[in-house]
Amino acid sequence: MNVFFVTVIFLLTSTAGAFSVKWDHFTFTQEWPQTACLMGKAEGKKCYIPDYINSFIIHGLWPSSGKTEGPKNCSSVPFDINKIKNLTDELLHAWPNIYSSTGRYDFWKHEWDTHGTCALSLNTTGTEYLFFRKTLDLMKIYNASRYLSKMNIIPSDTPYVTKTVQSVIQKALGVMPNLQCYRYKSDYLLAEIRICMDKRFKLIECPTSDSTLYWKRHAETEPCRGGKIYFPEIKRN
Fold first, then answer.
1. Is 110 a catalytic residue?
2. Which of the residues 25, 31, 115, 128 is marked catalytic?
3. Residue 198's CB: how many other CB atoms inside 10 A?
4. Which pLDDT does position 76 carry in this prediction?
5. Of the listed 111, 128, 192, 222, which one is catalytic?
6. How many contiguous H segments (helices) and E segments (strands) does the chain have?
7. Residue 111: active-site member
8. Catalytic-role residue among 25, 31, 59, 222
9. For the chain, what is the radius of gyration of the CA atoms?
10. pLDDT by residue (tens digit) across 115-167?
11. Distance CA 182, CA 191 (A)
12. Which of the residues in the chain have pLDDT under 70?
């Protein structure tokens, strides 16, 4: 059997899972770096936030199914940093790995292996390059820091009313965001802002009205149900 046919067979078998898996929408998730640092440190990770990071950063673009978590790890198409080399500068600014105790590309590899491989069935996200390119483009459009700062919701030691934060983003987007918090000591810190969109990237209401009952990243995170939440200032190491 010649090399061409072996290659074709490998590509077909490695992507087959991605085309058979069922999901109905994307969850686009942004995280606040200071809260992510505190969460990582609680797990024994070292954290470093570069000086040029002063806003929300990307956590991921996740194919999702109804109110359930997943799908995950849909094919064996391996992560290849060379395929997104020309996106590296944008990724380092919008989608950085702030855990310095892990490899520079580990976060991107994790997001590709876990979530990107499940989006191969769409033309818009059908390759590693397209998946990362599309996610970067979404961040340019929906960066939560822009909406919040316009209403003077900025990192502070003073708490904000949870419903006010939700309302500001809802008015900007036309759909209700899902807020995820991290309980630090006795306070609730804003950890993530998640919005849902269909497979054509049209914004939709997330399948559950109870803030992010799915895609819990850590056992310590929980929906921002409290009346007030903190938006912690970024502290440089």
1. no
2. 115
3. 11
4. 84
5. 111
6. 7, 8
7. yes
8. 59
9. 18
10. 999 999 999 999 999 999 999 999 999 999 999 999 999 999 999 999 999 99
11. 6
12. 1-20, 208-220, 237
